[in-house]
Amino acid sequence: MANDLYQRKQSLFDRWAGFYDLTLTSVFYQAVHRRLLDSIQLPAQPYVLDLGCGTGKLLNRLADHQKDLTGLGIDLSPDMIAQAQGANQVPERIQYHVGNAVALSLEDQHFDAVFNTITFLHYPEPEQVLAEVRRVLKPGGRYYLADFAPRWANGPEVLAQGMSPIRFYSPAVREQMAMQAGLAVVDHTWLLGPVLLTAFQATES
Ligand SMILES: C[S@@+](CC[C@H](N)C(=O)[O-])C[C@H]1O[C@@H](n2cnc3c(N)ncnc32)[C@H](O)[C@@H]1O
How far is the CA of 10 from the centre of ligand 1 (A)? Predict the structure, then answer.
C-alpha cells in the first residue's frame, strides 16, 4: 500500500517538475524559503540535508546565504532531481540524489541541519521519516520543518484520501511525534499564512 502511494507521489512530482518553478505555488514556497532564512541558526561550515528538495531552490539560497555551507538534496522524483542538478549554482558545494525520506542511504549522525519544506505533508509514514531525520542528525543538530498547519487542523488531518493524500499536523501533534523520535522542539514560528516552521533539536542519545 505504502509503495503504491510513493509511486503515485513520484509520478505526480515527475509530471510537475518541468514547470514547477513557474507556478504560483512555487512563488509562494520561495517566499517561505526567504522567511525561513531569518529563523535558522547554523554552525560554521555546516553540512545540511534538504529532504524533499524539489528543484533545489532552497539549497541554492542557503549556499548563497552562507558561503561555507555544503549540502545534499534528496527527492523521491528523478525529474525534480534533474531540474535541481540543472539549476545547481554551486556544484562544488551542493549535490543532489534521488531517494525516499522513509529510508535514507546515509550515514548516522552526518548532518548539522535537516531542512524539510512543504514536503512532510506528503509522507504516508511520517514516524519513520522522523526516525530517519533523528538518525542522520548530529547530536544537537537542528531539524527545520516548514509545512502547512491550518488552524482548523487539531490533529493529523488527512485530505484527498483516495488519490494522493496529504496530512496537516498541529503544533501539539508535531511536538508529540518528534518527542517520540528523540527530537526536542526549540520553537514554532508562523512564516507565511498557514505555513508553520517548527525547529527541533536532536537530543543527546
Ligand atoms: C511541494 S514539493 C516541495 C519542494 C521543495 N522542498 C520546496 O520547498 O519547494 C514536495 C517535494 O517532496 C518530494 N517528496 C514527496 N514525498 C517524498 C518522499 N517520501 N521522499 C523524498 N521526497 C519526497 C516530492 O517529490 C516533491 O519534490
Answer: 9
